[in-house]
Design brief:
two-stranded antiparallel sheet; 13 helices
Length: 293
Amino acid sequence: MTTKKKAKKEPKKGTELVVSEKPVAIVEEKDHVGESLILQYLDAFGFSYLTKAEKMQFIGIAKAFQLNPFKREIHCVPYMTTVKNPVTGEWKKEKERKLSIITGYEVYINRAERSGRLDGWNVKIVDEGTPKCRAVVTIHRKGWGHPMEHEVFLREFRKETKAWKEMPFFMLKKVAIAQGMRLAFPDAVGGMPYTGDEIMGDIIEADAHSEDVGSIPAETPEELAEKTRAQAEAREKLDGLSSAVKEGFRILGYTDKTMWAFCNKFGWDDRRIMSEINKIVDVREASKQEQSK
């Protein structure tokens, strides 16, 4: 991945220049991320079941950093994990739900560019096929006499997931870019959520403290059969949706899990589901038209 230095652009009409001791940034009212927009996203994507505290956590971070969830600049992943008892300090046997808030590596690049101080960057894989295989990102920042280099080792981040198995170097480059931009531009991206490539493995893999709370028993044949049956029924139910609804979900880019939550919310009523899909599509189209003005 390599970028070239971009020419400076004049601010568009209708934008406001915010001047401070930091580099000039352009803020556009039409891109403002407010609570109502975030609540629309949580409702549309099947996250209405989140607790009030979880919603406020997600809303607070999205608003603070002006991250638009409809543009996939931020999203959340609820997951179960073991936690410590705050009084005894011992690991609880019962798992509790946590909320992981995640952003994409492109957001780090975008914010670094908006700071006005990014003067080019590139990332490469070195020592491929050896234990020292790593991604090295080089970042040039205006005002610095020398570029900054940051390296990320494959052995430290590789996860047993489909993406990491099929595209390990691409995934590693994304981690290097995100971490490098955080180090080079702490004033622009400091405090922002991590990327899924950095933390997702910790969510989906076995808990690191499982030995402290006792191993989780394997599924019995009866439990496995029940799980398989439920999955088959779910697939059959999704396959039974009308072609219009399926096309709507395809346009929205929904996963099976999101489609299932969406349909459950609206009682598997085709007409109601189609109506809600059209509303979301209309909102997206209106947003695109507003941005193109």
